[in-house]
Structure formats: structure tokens, C-alpha cells
Amino acid sequence: MATSFNPAERRLLWLVAIGFFMQTLDSTIVNTALPSIANSFQESPLHMQMAVVAYGLAVAAVIPASGWLADRFGTRRIFMTAAVLFSLGSAACAAAHTLNQLVAARVLQGLGGALLLPVGRLAVLRSFERDKFLDAMAFVAIPGLMGQLIGPTLGGWLVEILTWHWIFLINVPVGVLGVLAARVWMPDLRQANLGGFDLSGFVMLTVAMVTLSLSVDGLGGLGMRHATVLVLLLVGLAMLAAYWLHALKVPKPLFSPVLFRIQSFRVGILGNLFARIGSGAMPFLIPMLMQLHMGYTPAQAGMLMLPVALASMGTKRVAIRIIRRYGYRNVLAINTVLLGVQIAGFALMSPDQPLWLRIVQMAVFGAFNSMQFTCMNTVTLKDMDAANASSGNSMLSMVQMLSMSLGVTVAAALVATFTAWFTPATAEHALMAFRAAFVSIGIVTACSAWIFWQLRPDTVAEGELHRDSPAG
């Protein structure tokens, strides 16, 4: 029997769902527009990855602070602030005339996007009784999945029919309506006797994420000197070590080392980080390859991503049955290897292949990718107790966005590196650079199966899979 919501509950759910839709839409809509934006800025399309990476890093950096900010200043105020920042960032993106301006605007947009979903989810968690919570989160999740589904296609269509500026301008009126609606419908929830925020730990983690990402990107996309790359890498590793030592001695760290005593969480977080690099790279690489070397228009390249999203949505229920039958370790180990093989298989794409073969290839990838996300997310959180659930979920969300950014960064660096290797610079050699990047990313993904093999042999408890994160 379907859960019924009263009018006030339904209005809150729609408000949070729209915020989720905006956040997921904007994480995918830019990819198909990158060649057009590059042409407008007179930049190489292979140098545009920072427009995607900047957004993902901003979201990853702010997610750990989202819960504390909502508890301190109230869910209504923070949600309204998030919608304002997202709208201002979107307008600034549309007004950008250089890549640096676009990257700065994407950071502002990411700051707003980072707060929309976690704060909205927190409002739902505290406003609904336990017997309604799962149905409430399912209600919120559907628009988020729709954002992922239509993002690439809508982005390509807007670029062709209008200009690339409209992929950002469409957010502005939605954001304004979100602010007005939140003022009326969002409950002003906050927590009494709130402790202090671990600012030192937050700064250490943020610096670590940014410097490590820049060090990878500096190998190819940004063209940094090797000494600069080495310094950034060392700074990032030093900040990670400093955070770990800091977290061991402070009473309330941002993420407690106690979390990593839970074996399934430890394996799940590491697996998410490395296995998602391949999944994060594909939405960047495929539209770029299709437009630069396969003769596709932006709209056609965007529509080619539809089979991935449709197969992903259609596989969810099948994935749950398979996991219940064979267990997390077996499914993750085998599925990760198969996913890596499929990513490497995109190196076989050529302009003369029939369209139906390409659609099948994309759909199969979407199905296995969905299986991977469902299983990874659930195994990471399945053994969390109530005291650690919120912190563990925040870390999982942060790692998901960080790995998406790393995926784009690694993909761009590999393509740039292989392009430099394959000389002279011809169209055939440029295509070979993309193929080599697909193979390399596929190998990294397949090798991460070893991480999941460290899980204990298991069975899946009834109801356990309902903990899967709506964000995927």
C-alpha cells in the first residue's frame, strides 16, 4: 500500500526534489556542451575539463560542512542560501568570457549545489516519521534520476537550438522559485546545544582534495612543470596525513577514524574512490569523442547517453535480486572486472560502426554501472550504527563527488599525455589517444576489484538494500 502524504509534507518533498533535480542536472548537462564552450573561448576542447572538475570539487569540499551549517543556522536559511548561490553561480557561468571566469563561476555554483541535497535530505529525515521516511526519500530520488537522464541530451539540444549559455540560464528562474518556495514551505529545523565545527580538519581535507586533483590534472590538461606537480602531490598527501593525526586527538573530528574500524565501510570507501574513476570519466570522454572524432552534433552526442541512463534505471530491481542471491563480495568483484572490460571496450569504437551497436554498448555499460553503484553504496553503509550513520553517509557523498572529479581529471590528463606521445598530430593519432585513455581507465577500474575481494563472504539481510543512497 502506497504511503500517503499530507499537503504540507508533499510540498516539502517537491521542494527538496527540485533541489536534487537541479544539482544532478547540472553535474551532467555541461559535458556535451564543452566543445562549443571551448570554441567560444577559443580554447582547446581538451583543456575544458576544469569546468567540470571545479564543480565536483566544490561540491565535495562543502558536503562535510552541510549538516553542521544546517544545524547551526537552520535548514530554511541554508537551503535558501544554497538556491541563491546556485542561481548566482549559474548566471555567472552564462556571463563568462574566459575559461578562468567559467571555472570560478562553477565553483560558486558548486557551493550552492553542495548544500541543496544534503540539507534537503536532513529536512526530510527530521520531518517524517520512520514508517514514511523510505517512501519520502524514494519520492525525492526520482527527479534526481531524471536530472541525470535528461542532462546530456538537454545540454546538447540547447547548444544546437540556442547557445551554450542557456544550459546555465535555465537554472536561474528555477533557483528564484526555490528561494520563494523555501521561505514558505521549508521547516526551520536546527539543533540545540550544537558543538563546535572542526574547521582545522575541514581545511586540511579541502586542501588535500584540491591539491591532489590539481597534481593529476597538471600531468596533462594544465601542462604544469613536473616540479609543480610533485609539490602539489606532496602537499596533498601531507594534508591527508595531517588530518588523520588531527582526527585521532580531537574529541569531535569531521570524520572520526573510528569509521574505518568497520571493515565493510573501509573497503566500500576505498572501492568507491577507485572504481568510480572510470564511471566518472565516461560522461566526459564519450561526448567529447563523439563530437571531435565521430562526426556527431552536440544533440546527437547527448542523446547517445540516454541508453546509459535508461539502462541504469531499469537495472535497479534486477541488481537488488542478484546481490541478495550472490552476496556483496562476489557481485562487486566480478562486476568491477566486467565494468573495466566494458570501459576498455569503448576503444574499439569507430565512425563506421552501425548506430544500433553503439546503443547496445552504451546500454550494457549503463546496466553494469548501475549494478556497481547500487552494490558499492549499500555495502559501504550497511554496518553503520546510528551514531556513525550520518558521518559515514557524508563521507560517502564526499568520496562520490571527489571520484567523479578525479575521473574527469584522469581522463583529460591521459588524453593529453597520449596525444603528446602520438606524433605527428593527425586526426588518426588524436583518435588513438582517446582509445588508449579508454584502455587505461578500464584497467584501473578492473584492478579495483581486488579491493572489493577483501570483503568477508556474506549474505544480504532483508531490507538492507533500502539504504542505497538516492544520489547513486
* Count, helices: 18
Largest sheet data:
none
Morphology call: globular
SSE string, helix = H, strand = E? HHHHHHHHHHHHHHHHHH
What share of residues is helical?
over 70%
Category by helix and strand content: mainly alpha
Compute the CA-based radius of gyration. 21 Å
Beta-strand segment tally: 0
Examine the secondary-structure arrangement and name the CATH architecture of the largest domain. Up-down Bundle
Query: Low-confidence segments, ≥5 residues, pLDDT <50?
Result: 466-471
CATH class category name of the largest domain: Mainly Alpha
Would you give the CATH topology of the largest domain?
Answer: Growth Hormone, Chain: A
The CATH superfamily of the largest domain is identified as MFS general substrate transporter like domains
Instruction: Tell me the strand percentage band.
Output: under 5%
Mean pLDDT: 80
Kindly, what is the distance between the CA atoms of the first and last residues, rounded to a whole number of angstroms?
A: 26 Å
Spell out the blueprint of helices and strands.
Elements lengths: L6 H22 L5 H8 L8 H24 L1 H21 L3 H29 L2 H32 L4 H4 L1 H15 L13 H20 L7 H24 L13 H31 L4 H6 L2 H21 L1 H18 L9 H27 L4 H36 L5 H21 L1 H4 L20
Task: List its salient traits.
disordered C terminus, Growth Hormone, Chain: A, 77% helix, mainly alpha, 472 residues, 0% strand
